[in-house]
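Issue 218. Parser rejects a valid record. Input:
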Amino acid sequence: MTSNIRAVIFDMDGVLTDSEALINAAAIAMFKEKGLDVLPADFIPFVGAGEDRYVGGVAEKYHFPLDAAAGKQRTYEIYFELVPTQLEAFPGVHELVNACQKAGLRMAVASSADRVKVAVNLQKIGLPIEAWDAVVTGELVERKKPAPDIFLLAAQTLGVLPAECVVVEDASNGIQAAKAAGMRCVGVAHTLASESLQAADVVREKISNVKISDLAPDL
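Output the parser choked on:
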């Protein structure tokens, strides 16, 4: 797909922040409190789909009765205890954001996570909600990734067409959502192996390797 890209939409977890390992640890701890031992890999199919599905999908796998909303709430409580000392931005994030600003690109965050988690994460890495042209969170759409809804809403909020957007994603569900929205997509292999991201237009091993030309070839 080649078009005049006007906006960049960043996923958050696993793209801007190294939070995937933390939410994984928090969810494992939540299940352990409830008497179920689960594995880190159990969550992989649900990465990017929002925490309701993240914990709910694993509960379904084990046929374990879980109130998904309560399970998510407890997972967030554990997660927020880890953030102050363990959450960081990936190297290269601030540099890429600055490069996008200099290139005149509009920028949004679109995350399936709840706004409270998005706000905490972005504040911790020095890119708070007010630093973005738009921030779209999971509560604002009924259908989470791999449905395209969150990216389409981000484009609408930015005032651009879907074909004028490029998405930066780390998860298969997110890439599928971006392509379903008719958007260019750059995959970063922070969370999954690059082989799992081949549906993206461009795949880079890490966000520090992403260049403006990957995002907007016409610039």
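Fixed in the parser; the record now loads. Strands lie at 7-10, 106-110, 134-136, 165-169, 184-188, 202-204.
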